[in-house]
Amino acid sequence: MQVDVITALRSGRTAEGLAMATRWAGQAPQDPQAQRLLAVAQAASGDLEAAHVSLDRALALAPDDASLHYQRATLFVGGRRAEEARSALSQSLALDANEMRAYLLQAQLALWDRDLEQAERQLQLAMRVQPDHPGLLTLRGLVLLQRGRPQEASALLVHAVGVAPEDPQTRYTLGLAFLAQGHGAFAEQAFARVLERFPGAHAVRRLLAESIRQQGRPVEAADVLEAGVRDSGAASADLLRFAGELRLQAGQIEQAVALLKRGAKAAPEDRRLLDALIAALRRQGDAADARRTIEDALAAAPHIDGLWSARLSFEPADGDYAGIAERWEAAIPGSVPAMQLKMWLAARAGDAATARIHADRIVAREPLHFEANVQIIHALFLEDPAAAVSHIESLLPGVSDERSLHMVLGWLGRAQDRAGRHADAVATWQRLAAVADAQSLPLPVASGATVPAVTESPATGGQGPVFLYGPPGSGVERVVGTLNGSLPARMRMDRMEPVPPADPLQVPATATALATGTLTPQAVAGGWRSALPARQADAGTVIDWLPWWDPALLPVLAAIPGASLWLVLADPRDMLVDWLQRGTSYQRFHVQSATAAASWLAGVLEPMSALIDAPPLQLRVVRMDDIAEDAPAIAHRLGELVGAALSPLRGLGPTRLASGRWRSYAQVLAEPFALLAPAAKALGYPED
């Protein structure tokens, strides 16, 4: 009878095995093994409570049987009662120090707790009993995997498979070791063997699909997963999501949508599944079906913000956004994203008062919410700058990360400026520079070269390359943005990107090398030309935005046929104030103080004034003083230079301080302004 029960249970005929075990236990009520086997069958059927009762009867009949205490531990493990399981295992080992299974189960419990040292201690004890036991080898392999040593683990597990070729746990662990090493084909074989014996093991099925996916066969991987989700249900939601992602990867959009819809019904709160469904719906291109799908999901789970966001994303431009906002907040009272939508709708409609009400509600829940604080601060800027300062200062104690601190200090400096607290504004800007110091670059060192008497570069009969430079605070980024918007084939902004061109004009030290004769202008010009193909730029038409400027570069430009220099400038004192309060949006320089910044800026501008007075080459100056906030005017001025109509830049970025605003800082920045006074005069700006 015992053999028949065990055979039935191992072959998956649980009900049959339970029936036979029940009959045997009834026929032999005084046989502890009959009661033990009944407990095993009951546990296999999912009735742990009944299994404990049967095992109690077995232990009453044979209290000194170590295997029964081990069996008790397995029931506790099945019920997630780890401490009670450990107690039962201790009793088992006290009765029989050679109960191998007890050591192994204790090691498994230690692995669950990620206590690798304890697991290894238990395995060392087990090795004294049976060093070549496949379960012992398997668990040693798991410990090696946990320690990040998959090659050693796989060698040990291959040996374990040789000892017990049909042991599923050993093959499963071997598959993990192969997968960790990227050996997808070997992992596939291991997991496939396990799945043959346990087709309902979703975790194994998922790993099998992953091993196939890693070999570049997403369709086959999806087929494996779908074989395990013939019947929908919450338990299969993970497989549905993975299968849907694989179908999406393979371009099988309709199949992906169908799978992910089933998954969303089974697990509407699974955000990754929802994101995959939204991506599939977008690629499907049927907005109406997308709305129906998400509405169905909302009917089942209206309390999920992500579903409402998804619903909003598929609403047409002229859709009922206000209606969605009302439904959203009714379903999730106090939802910050719902309030943010209402704030946005009110601001778009020009209802600043209502937008402010929603913004106040948001920051009551999330004090550092970016959009809500922008709304509040913008309103306070216009109504009560002093109150704006107080509001922003109240945010500072809650700022914990550098990025948020940079943002809040930027707001504070602008508010202090508007409130007339100019000394405080300068102090805030200097604090802001210190926060950004980790990402800053050293200021380029001047070569000491003067404006040389060189002739213009030879004409080419075409447009010729343009070298564009503007000092920090000049507003050059608005010039570059306008040119790039209308002339993307000509404009090159790559010198400010993480991977800039590898040519001599990228390196400020080139100026000193030119001034000392270490480099020749022709060599620098040749290096510039050699880098153009990688930049996809044409030597005859490129507009090259330079990150630095020095008079030593003039002979280089003279060596390039048709080259011209465009300088973007403003009143030097306005440039300094703008530099202090905004930094540079394209390249951050390390500045120790306002005086140090002014000294460096004066050194850059003074030779420029000499260049403007007697240009030795084709030179154009774009003065931003009166047009910095006027996108059409910037486009018109640049259009005159390039001989073509340019489109105004959409969105100029953060507002600059008005031209002449430097006068408000005449006392606070008296020393820096004194350093800039000669350059300002030479460039034609009034002294006061």
From TrEMBL:
Top-rank taxon: Bacteria
Keywords assigned by UniProt, alphabetized: Repeat, TPR repeat
Transmembrane region(s): none
Pfam families xref list: TPR_16
Protein name from the UniProt record: Tetratricopeptide repeat protein
Organism the protein comes from: Luteimonas composti
